[in-house]
Design goal:
Elements lengths: L1 E9 L5 E10 L4 E5 L6 H8 L7 E6 L2 E2 L5 H7 E4 L11 H6 L8 H5 L5 H13 L15 H14 L4 E5 L7 H18 L2 E6 L2 H7 L2 E6 L2 E7 L5 H8 L23 H4 L1
Parallel strand pairs: 3-8, 3-9, 6-7, 7-8
Antiparallel strand pairs: 1-2, 1-4, 4-5, 9-10
The protein binds adenosine-5'-diphosphate and magnesium ion.
């Protein structure tokens, strides 16, 4: 479970990235944080594992406030996947996955890529789960983008997280691969009761995959509703535009709320 309580983040240069965010995310929930570039999505996600510290307000993970004292414990329970995958390209797939167990294993050994048999078996099991068992000993940079993101997911699963932060995990991928990655995340969240906070900037993917959508605009929550309640009005609030054609295809004439296009229709 994650609780954001009146979270505010002002960077040193005076930029207000988050402006009083209060949200509660239940264990096992799949929440999409939807917002345009610069709306505060990355800052919000990074506050959960302490990579960003609040100017005021706080974040709680499983009822523990994220702060310097709790950071090690929190990070053990919070996995992260990234837009650019953040993998080591010249390393084998399995060694990239094994680095996900760093926080729970002796640093000295892990820096030398010496891992116990038990951990290596666990790494192969998570690779099997994301459909990459046959690639375990291949160099990571030989894999396609979608496969690399699945390695990123496998690495995060290595730490058996309660929470998975996915910061625009599909921004570097083709639409069909993106669909595949979000399906995988959604399935893992449901099966393992992992809380997923996934930032996206595409309305169509959010509508298709989210259980709940938190809409951000200029650091403020302007929507917090089940996915089915995303209306044209909310889209206007999130994107500050009246031209929904921008988001639903080439047509520029505004749609009414009941004309919102679902992903399956869109494709
Ligand atoms: N380290 C930083 N220093 C100053 N401003 C930042 C920093 N990180 C992000 N920002 C600013 O905070 C706002 C929110 O950024 P971000 O959370 O990255 O948004 P998003 O992920 O939705 O694009 C933006 O205006 C961005 O320029
Ligand atoms: Mg971002």
């Amino acid at each position: 479970m994650i609780k954001f309580n009146q979270l505010r983040k002002v960077f040193d240069d005076g930029t207000v990235a988050l402006d009083g965010v209060t949200i509660k995310v239940e264990q096992g929930e799949f929440v999409v944080v939807l917002g345009p570039s610069g709306s505060g999505k990355t800052t919000l996600l990074r506050s959960v594992n302490g990579l960003v510290s609040p100017t005021s307000g706080n974040v709680r993970v499983n009822d523990v406030e994220v702060c310097e004292q709790s950071l090690r414990m929190v990070r053990r329970k919070v996995g992260m996947i990234f837009q650019q995958f953040n993998l080591v390209g010249n390393l084998s797939v399995i060694n990239n996955v094994l680095t996900g167990s760093f926080s729970t294993y002796n640093k000295w050994y892990s820096n030398l890529y010496i891992f116990s048999k038990e951990l290596r078996i666990r790494a192969l099991a998570v690779l099997d789960r994301v459909g990459l068992l046959d690639k375990a000993y291949q160099r990571t940079d030989e894999l396609s983008g979608g496969q690399q993101q699945r390695v990123g997911i496998a690495r995060a699963l290595m730490q058996q997280p309660d929470v998975l932060l996915a910061d625009e995990p599909i921004a570097s991928l083709d639409p069909m691969i993106a669909y595949n990655i979000l399906s995988l995340l959604r399935e893992i969240s449901a099966e393992d009761k992992i809380t997923v906070l996934c930032s996206l900037h595409q309305v169509d993917f959010a509508m298709h995959f989210a259980q709940r959508i938190v809409g951000l605009s200029e650091g403020k929550v302007v929507m917090d509703e089940p996915q089915k309640d995303l209306t044209a009005e909310y889209i206007r609030k999130i994107y500050k535009t009246h031209d929904k054609g921008l988001f639903f295809g080439p047509e520029s004439k505004p749609y009414s709320d009941d004309q919102l296009v679902t992903w399956s229709e869109y494709k």
